[in-house]
Amino acid sequence: MKNYILDMTDNQFKVAAKSIIDKDYRLNQVIKWVYRNKSDSFENFTNLPKHIRERLNEKFLLRTLKIVNKEKSKIDNTIRYTFQTLDRKYIFAVFLSVNDRSSVCISSQIGCPVMCAFCYSGKVKFIRNLSRGEIIEQVLQIENDTGKRITGVLFMGMGEPMLNFTSTVFVLNSFLSNKEFGISKRHITVSSVGIVPAIKKLADKNFGVRLALSLHAVDEKLRERLISNNFGFRIEDILDAGKYYIKRTNSHLTIEYTLLKGINNSMADAHKLARLLKRHELVNSNVNVNLIPLNSLVNVKFQPPEHDSVQKFKDILRFSRMTVNIRQQKGIDINAACGQLGY
Ligand code: SAH
Q1: Residues 105 and 170 in one domain
Q2: Both ends of the chain: CA-CA distance in Å?
Q3: What are the pLDDT digits (tens) for 195-221?
Q4: Among residues 71, 223, 273, 308, which is most buried (max CB within 10 A)?
């Protein structure tokens, strides 16, 4: 069995390759080919002698994912990628391009154990966590395929990154490392349904990346209904974890709120949300609220909110001095928007 190079940190690779590469400058050359030049074949590592390239190829693997489907939106430049893993499972990633900035929305798990009632990824049976390499490779392959330099990453595809903490931490180290991806911390967002202890642990790591918390409800009972398996974490504790995160890291927090017609989009809900955030000291310049009008799905019983109600909900929060955005529906025609990643 070959070793998957992307699953290894630089140090782990150094140990695994010590019989082939014995000089630090050679190691740095390999790392540069892998992460900066995003090369998908050892043959292309042209500043290394042929015998080293051959031995690397015998012992190591550079890619494990296969692009099996690719759909391009006709409305915007969004591209939805379906990858097949070595064990023949499917994962999804989305290329997003806004004002010439290119980002990728990546998956962290195969299927999702949280099973939000309005999300397609939640309908995909949870199989396993993705490894460091499988998460990173989504970005490398999309960068290769589009020829665009990726400057932003969102952990908003399939899966719950805070239930795959170890890989997520490895991946963040790689994204932030100047030797590897060198992506700015402000352009990396980890989105979580609110796995409280993991969020606190992430805060203590102090990567400084942005955090998004998927709240969706101001009432505990309703939240339990919407998020089938929330692992027992309560709204109050999730918001406290968010507060801890921004205090500890001096970073930015987004509260995500998917609007469902007649379920969580009343004016009373908006007022409650404003009060709740105020009580948790989350009304300040480090926090914004992202309202996500439901993207419709077949076989899902919820309906998108009327345009008017979205605006009213936003105005109420604005009036309480919150920064509010309404999430644009990118790639809606190719099922690439929030919550549409499934099969
Ligand atoms: N598990 C993480 C990462 C997924 S992010 C999390 O829950 O945050 C995906 C975002 O899209 C979440 O905020 C999610 O609630 C939202 N979403 C899911 N299904 C949706 C749908 N059908 N329409 C709009 N937003 C949806």
Answers
A1: yes
A2: 31
A3: 999 999 999 999 999 999 999 999 999
A4: 273
